Amino acid sequence: MRTFDIVVWVVFIAASLFLFFFFQKRIKKNKIAKLEAQKAYEAKREKYQYLTPESFDDMPREDVTAAVLFHCTRKENEDFDHYYENMTESERLVHGIYQLTLSLSDKNPSLHSFFLSPSNQVYVPHIAEYFERIGSHDIAELLIAAKKFADIIENDEEDEDMGDYSKYNFSDFTNEFITLVNTTNVNEKLTKYVLEHKEEFYDEVKEESGDNDETISE
What we know:
Elements: H1 3-48, H2 53-58, H3 64-78, H4 89-102, H5 111-116, H6 127-133, H7 137-154, H8 170-183, H9 186-196, E1 204-209, E2 212-217
Antiparallel strand pairs: 1-2
Helix pairs in contact: 1-3, 3-4, 6-7, 7-8
């Protein structure tokens, strides 16, 4: 083998080894970051599943919506058959908006899946109102039209005049919803709503008093 060829192979092997160790290091770093993020998530989930006035006093503003979601999903998990009736109106609002966004987490997201899911039927009649109450008027208007379109499809009805949304299909509704969420600061509006109604998220706290357990409402 000529000297030139040997040099080429040495350089190639050296470069391959460098890339191998570089990507191994990157993979390890990403894995550590992922584990740390999971630990942080679990810590917040544990911290915020029960909410008191003190919880909100110490809570960073950026944690507010996540905190009430942990609280609401804990109530859902504790009594799935009755969680809806046991929630306050503000809890239903936050949880309903969460269920809508969760329905868009699939590979082929569509608002239609929210209207079709049996588990979301308690929220379907109120979802536009929820966005209206947090001040997202454009989204509320969009969802009213989307629900009307879903009813037309489900009941095999003739198309009716839907105004500005007459030519929309569910891809159009979905894309516009995502655009509005990203451009109208929905999370900040929801955070503001929660902080204005935070007493509706307080849990009853059990405190031990002597030999008896005493339940107090915060």
